[in-house]
Amino acid sequence: MASTDRKVANGEDNAVFSLRRERGLASSYLYLFQEFWCPGIAIEGVKSFQKCFQAKHGDVVVASFPKTGTTWLIALTFATVNRQHFSAENHPLLTSNPHTLVSCLEFKIFCDDIHDPVLHLSNMIEPRLFSTHTPFTSLPKSLTESNAKIIYICRNPFDTFVSAWTYFNKIRSTMSLPALELEEAFEMYCNGVVSFGPWWSHMLGFWKESLVRPKKVMFLKYEDLMENVNFHVKKIAEFLGCPFTAEEESDGVIESIIKLCSFEKMKDLEVNISGKLDKIIDNKLFFRKGEIGDWINYFSPSLIQKLSKIIEEKLDGSSLSF
Ligand code: A3P
């Protein structure tokens, strides 16, 4: 049982006990916390992140809704920022999963895993790179009001759903839990009851901020990255204040980063075939198909109609579209 669920069961955590909770795609309960559906195992982490995180000049945070391309963007960002330090032949991304190199603030740094997160953070090599699934409105002020940079990735909600449903069913099977039927999971997704959901509020939070403060928040779509990754890697480097020089461009540095972080390369690395993240999650679960439009193989006409209508309604007037 996850720590928050256990505390709730034992009546230890009255604050969490009072929160509305629902079953989500994953195994643990989701709690309606600060207007988003927070996995029980992440509540304490989000709270500590909010309370204790002190942003530093140069910090970079990769933010995302789960299953939208986080792993890919983390890898591209890590390789871009650290390109002076590692050669393509001897790169940490060849032997470590991207999530090991760039830790998640609420799941790793401020969870039970690290004994003294503040000390750990102060000892990190700069620029510090992190990831988060916490919605924009719940990020600590220290992060939103500093000049730390946030890069956000989102993805077509159809593909995000299929990726999430298949991923969480694999997690469930490793815990000997029965798989969720597609229709059951789809209902949760349409109601926004998914980890860090509703997904529309999540993406709109970062979208709006990227329009108001484009130097603070860079907003990317998985589909755009797929279409022209070279263009977006250059944009990422510019946004982070470390643009590629003409020499780097002609030396093929961008192409080598793209190749290193490509789905085909990463999924076949030994660490991503047989390794585990934090001794729990099989790294291979982060690499499924890496395609646009796989949803067509799963959706019936009525499900297409339903999700299209939700997307239209929720994103109406936002200038964000898919
Ligand atoms: P699919 O399940 O559609 O294949 P996240 O990293 O946020 O968990 O997202 C996982 C999705 O990104 C999965 O999508 C996965 O296959 C895809 N993905 C992982 N690494 C990728 C890469 N290097 N390039 C493109 N897509 C990648």
From TrEMBL:
Q: Which GO terms describe its molecular function?
A: sulfotransferase activity
Instruction: Name one matching Pfam family.
Output: Sulfotransfer_1
Class in the EC hierarchy, top level? transferase
Q: Which domain of life is it from?
A: Eukaryota
Family annotation (InterPro entries) = P-loop_NTPase, Sulfotransferase_dom
Gene3D superfamilies cross-referenced by the UniProt entry:
P-loop containing nucleotide triphosphate hydrolases (3.40.50.300)
Q: Where is the Sulfotransferase domain?
A: 59-318
| Keyword Transferase tagged | yes
Keywords in alphabetical order: Transferase
Its Enzyme Commission number(s) read 2.8.2.-
Report the family membership. Answer: Belongs to the sulfotransferase 1 family.
Name the PANTHER family for this protein.
SULFOTRANSFERASE SULT
Q: What is this protein called?
A: Sulfotransferase
